[in-house]
Amino acid sequence: MKQLKVVQTFISRFLILILSFGLVIFSTNIWGSEGKGTISIVVANVAIVSFFSSIFSGSSTSYFAHKFKIEQVLVYSYIWSLLVGITVPLAFSFASLQGSYLYYLIGISVFSSLLTTNISLFIGTQNIKMFNLYTVLQQLMHVLFIVILIYFVKLKDVSVYFLAQTLCLMLLFLLSFYQILRKCKIRDFKFSKKVFIDMFEYGWKTQLSAFIQFLNYRLSFYFLEYFEGIAAVGIFSIGITFSEAIWTITRSIAVVLYSDVVNSKSKEGSIIKTKSSLKISFTLMLVFLIGIIIIPAQVYVLIFGNEFSETKKIMLLLSPGIFAIAISDMVGYYFSAIKHLKILNVKSIIGLLITVILSYFAIPRWGIWGACFVTSASYLVSGSILFWKFYQTTDFKIRDYLITKDEITALMQTFSRKKY
After folding, report:
1. Which of 122, 206, 363, 373 has the smallest number of Cβ neighbours within 10 A?
2. Which residues in 287-316 are b (16+ Cβ under 10 Å) and which e?
3. What is the DSSP letter of 68?
4. For residues 281 and 192, what is the distance between their CA atoms, to the nearest angstrom?
5. Which helix (H) or strand (E) holds 309?
6. What pLDDT, in 10s, does the model give residues 122-153?
């Protein structure tokens, strides 16, 4: 059954990977490096808002879905999503951070958080099928709305990207909300002090680590914008977008692992599942990195345009860090599922310190290449810390990273089933 979940999630993430690449190619060809830079900065701001809203709407919803009544969990997640989705973007506007896109930032933040609540609920109740469906639909419908707005409504400005995303998220939230509401009892939507305290305590600890790690991923954008301009952000962001698109594959395995461990009562069984996930992720990442190495630089120019002629070099410089994060994510999700959150904060803080210190010296001197060096260094150190902690308490063997013949056979049998 777990293999079936992994395969279903892998397929959905592969579709997301294709759609993500398609969206990146389309946006760079329509709006160029400056437009891509603007999109990257606004999306980064949306992600900052989401880390605050995810105190209740993210992993906290997943974790407590089986421990409290779903209705009580949803009350706090929905209210918090609305409050944070409005107030934090307003704070950004007062600080003059992308104020011209304020209304889009509010719309995307609110509906993204509300939809995240529903998707997190699917994870917590082990409804991986619905989780996969809605994560694919987010990318697919975003692309469809962009196409409609550009070619039928005849809008051309880069704000089309944000309007399409807002409409997509709003529609998907309403659909998922209807599905969830049918199984809820109205009288159970009530406030509970214990639910609030437990969700907040778990949520802020989890999101603190996630937020700090996000700064590791995105702080270089702001340094680049300051020292090199918005076009440099657009060029560099292609490499980061590729990284995160690749991570969608490995994180599909991590989500299934998280759902299994949260609902498991066996520590040894959870460790075995984590090591099994490591094997699959390790193998997949080797395949993707080999692909990055063998694709000629001219292919990137053909796809994205002459402004992005350095994409191959960017990908090569980022590849060690991409590999480290993809593999260590398995361990991170394991620690999150068993509520060992301190190590997540430690690795994120150390990674952030490396990012800040090295960015200050490297980016002004070497520009985009400096940003690549800083990013990989931060990723490698963060990943190494998680591995060190995980293997302190478990037996480490080289075969933990090698897929066995039996595992390959089992996966092939799952793929060959008629029904998914």
Report:
1. 373
2. ebbeebeeeeeeebbebbeebbebbbebbe
3. S
4. 40
5. none
6. 888 878 788 888 988 998 999 999 999 999 99
